[in-house]
Amino acid sequence: MTNRFLIVSTLLSAAVYADTVSRLWARGYAAIPEPQQVELREGDLRFGPDWSFELGPGVAATDVAVESLREELGTRFGLRAGGVLRGGSIVRLEMKAGSVAPGKSTDSDKQAIADQAYRMDISDSGVTLTANAS
Description:
Strand content: 15-25%
Low-confidence stretches: none
Number of helices: 4
Structural class: alpha/beta
Shape: globular
Number of strands: 5
Strand order of the largest sheet: 2-1-3-5-4
Largest sheet: 5 strands, mixed
Radius of gyration: 20 Å
Distance between the termini: 58 Å
Mean pLDDT: 78
């Protein structure tokens, strides 16, 4: 009887663990914070110095989000802000209040959640990051 209990407990705990692994993590990617919704398709894109970084209308080059993103993309992948494309793709940052509807949240500060909402669209032509605020 004890062995049967151990087997059932092990199977149940494995099932619970499998449920906590995100689809991104299962595919070998990590994102912090974990996105509320992910739609994965076939294929991957590789960043490199062929890519460039550009700002959408109304996004100030001095914005802290821009400075952080520019630094990370440059350090990790060799991307340059406003660089000349050499057959590569573009990482584009857009910010417009209310452009991204946040998903369900247990946090009672709905405005803070809305301010932090963002969407990342990845295609063959590049990556577009759309955020409600910096």
